[in-house]
């Protein structure tokens, strides 16, 4: 859509929503009385441990903690198509966190997207998924968060344009898109038998706390997951989010074991290494029980659509490309081969995927490959995560385009990406904004 | 032929365009300050400044440098007249074996050129890519913090 069409769709959507909101009277929600002080940390360690498990599976920390910030103190800017929203402080600080929240208020926020004082939360907070969580998990998560160190960190003001800054409009959104309550009953597909318990557990985690579809689905004009297109892929923080229902279409189809490995370690031997916004997700999933991760993999594998016929083999590169490929080869040999050539120790350590099979290099879009070269994969303190240095300051747009054209032709052997230099320039500009 | 501008001087070198900048500096120009550490962009011993930004010269093909100015540690002070940053490293005895120090100084130099007066927090974040296997990071950080304060107080001083 063009910007104008976007604006028109927006205006129309806003009017409809305002009408529905007024009619439904959804907008008014009562305040729940604050606690005078944060509740004493629960003495039930088992409950707190269970809450930690829910928090890791739900990846709460990724949005509710800034880089180098105090855990769960919020303040991370979330860029949405509608403006910037800042995540909130969910430590038990009475004044600026959720220390004054009763468990009832906490459960209402997770399930209905309503803050303790009654104002409506924006659906950047994935309550349309959290609404499926069980009472037990909600209670455990509450106990866990209330046992964190309170941090005094006032919420930052969101930067949203009117009328979106007017929160009661969210009531219309909820009317349209919030499917409150537990997941409807479902029967595991034949393929998941005899692990139906794992499938059910996986479904609960993926659709509930894990909220995978929040990033892995395309969004409609109102910022809700497009109906009927769950897991068809999306775009987050400048990275393409791969579809989760076409894992069988990869050059080598994903196996359940590879998917579970990927989720727990960030590396799948024949596919890719987690990067961009997915890398921290894998760090948190690594701390969840292995059985939960297996269950998630079981469920996701059951969502696959059949693979299409073998992709058409690529035509030989045109002669015009030869110059690009030669320049790209020179850059590859100096900048990339040290780790990515077939004989490099870095390449073979820990079952790392070969470039030939890499999801990024084989993708239809060049976006993630460009992001990888520009940003690399950052250090994560002293954790054992894989690392790649950034090349944004080393190579210019044309050079990045050349090296990617070379790698695509040499390793992925898929049709060349189009307009690479312009794409690199555009994504570099996006990143600087 | 590959043209390189290093420490203000232009050089025409008959080398392979895929040669990493580090090899050209050390083997062709005898500028041996920058060190070969891991060759993978993971340790920072090879850090030099290209166009004002710190880069891992071991991963930078000479063909990519073009007309951008390369600056190495040989361009800072001399034994008799060390730069503010070098003097601070000496005062803090920041080097143990010294292998990482040229890279450390060049990364810090890039920061202080851009932001004289950078805070300790900024320095710690900026210096993250460079490692010291002897573990003198605390002294290295202290040396850079002091140099940063001196440069902020006296902006005219040669860093």
Percentage of residues in strands of chain B: 5-15%
Assign the structural class of chain B, choosing from mainly alpha, mainly beta, alpha/beta, alpha+beta, or little secondary structure: alpha+beta
Main β-sheet of chain B, in a few words? 5 strands, mixed
The residue fraction in helices of chain A comes out at: 40-55%
What oligomerization state is this entry in? heterodimer
3D shape of chain A: globular
SSE layout and pairings?
The complex is a heterodimer of chains A (433) and B (159).
Chain A: H1 3-24, H2 45-58, H3 60-64, E1 77-80, E2 83-86, H4 103-112, H5 127-130, H6 135-146, E3 159-160, H7 170-177, H8 196-207, H9 213-216, E4 234-236, E5 239-241, H10 256-265, H11 278-285, H12 290-301, H13 320-340, H14 345-348, H15 359-362, H16 367-375, H17 397-412, H18 420-432
Antiparallel strand pairs in A: 1-2, 2-3, 4-5
Chain B: E1 2-6, E2 9-13, H1 21-28, E3 47-50, E4 53-56, H2 62-65, E5 69-71, H3 84-91, H4 101-114, H5 120-126, H6 137-153
Parallel strand pairs in B: 1-5
Antiparallel strand pairs in B: 1-2, 3-4, 3-5
């Amino acid at each position: 859509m063009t910007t104008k069409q976007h604006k028109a769709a927006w205006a129309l959507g806003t009017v409809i929503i305002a009408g529905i909101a007024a009619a439904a009277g959804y907008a008014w929600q009562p305040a729940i009385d604050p606690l005078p002080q944060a509740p004493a940390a629960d003495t039930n360690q088992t409950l707190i441990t269970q809450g930690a498990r829910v928090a890791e599976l739900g990846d709460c920390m990724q949005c509710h903690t800034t880089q180098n910030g105090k855990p769960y103190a919020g303040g991370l800017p979330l860029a949405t198509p509608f403006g910037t929203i800042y995540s909130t402080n969910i430590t038990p600080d009475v004044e600026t966190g959720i220390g004054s929240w009763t468990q009832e208020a906490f459960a209402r926020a997770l399930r209905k997207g309503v803050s303790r004082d009654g104002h409506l939360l924006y659906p950047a907070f994935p309550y349309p998924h959290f609404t499926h969580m069980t009472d037990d998990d909600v209670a455990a998560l509450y106990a866990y968060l209330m046992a964190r160190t309170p941090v005094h960190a006032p919420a930052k003001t969101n930067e949203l344009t009117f009328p979106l800054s007017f929160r009661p409009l969210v009531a219309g959104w909820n009317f349209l898109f919030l499917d409150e309550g537990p997941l409807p009953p479902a029967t595991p597909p034949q393929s998941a038998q005899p692990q139906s318990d794992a499938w059910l557990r996986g479904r609960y985690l993926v659709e509930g706390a894990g909220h995978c579809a929040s990033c892995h689905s395309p969004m409609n004009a109102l910022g809700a997951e497009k109906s009927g297109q769950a897991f068809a892929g999306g775009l987050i923080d400048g990275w393409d989010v791969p579809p989760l229902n076409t894992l069988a279409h990869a050059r080598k189809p994903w196996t359940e074991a590879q998917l579970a490995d990927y989720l727990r370690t960030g590396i799948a031997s024949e596919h890719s290494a987690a990067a961009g916004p997915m890398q921290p997700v894998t760090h948190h999933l690594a701390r969840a029980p292995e059985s939960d991760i297996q269950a998630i993999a079981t469920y996701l594998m059951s969502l696959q659509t059949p693979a299409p016929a073998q992709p058409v083999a690529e035509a030989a590169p045109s002669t015009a490309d030869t110059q690009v490929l030669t320049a790209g080869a020179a850059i590859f040999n100096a900048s990339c081969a040290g780790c990515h050539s077939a004989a490099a120790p870095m390449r073979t350590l820990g079952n790392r995927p070969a470039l030939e099979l890499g999801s990024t290099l084989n993708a239809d879009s060049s976006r993630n490959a460009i992001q990888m070269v520009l940003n690399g994969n950052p250090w994560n303190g002293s954790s054992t995560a894989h690392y790649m240095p950034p090349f944004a300051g080393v190579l210019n747009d044309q050079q990045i385009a050349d090296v990617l054209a070379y790698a695509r032709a040499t390793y992925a052997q898929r049709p060349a990406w189009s307009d690479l230099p312009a794409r690199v320039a555009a994504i570099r500009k996006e990143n600087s904004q | 032929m590959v043209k390189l501008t290093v420490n203000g001087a232009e050089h025409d070198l008959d080398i392979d365009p895929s040669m990493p900048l580090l090899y050209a500096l050390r083997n062709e120009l005898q500028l041996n300050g920058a060190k070969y550490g891991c060759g993978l962009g993971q340790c920072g011993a090879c850090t030099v400044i290209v166009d004002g930004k710190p880069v891992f010269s071991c991963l930078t093909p000479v063909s990519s440098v073009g007309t951008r100015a390369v600056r190495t540690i040989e361009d800072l002070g001399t034994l008799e007249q060390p730069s503010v940053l070098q003097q601070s490293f000496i005062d803090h005895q920041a080097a143990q074996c010294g292998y990482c120090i040229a890279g450390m100084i060049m990364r810090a130099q890039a920061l202080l050129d851009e932001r004289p007066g950078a805070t300790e927090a900024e320095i710690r974040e900026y210096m993250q890519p460079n490692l010291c296997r002897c573990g003198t990071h605390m002294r290295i950080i202290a040396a850079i913090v002091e140099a940063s304060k001196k440069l902020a107080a006296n902006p005219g001083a040669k860093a």
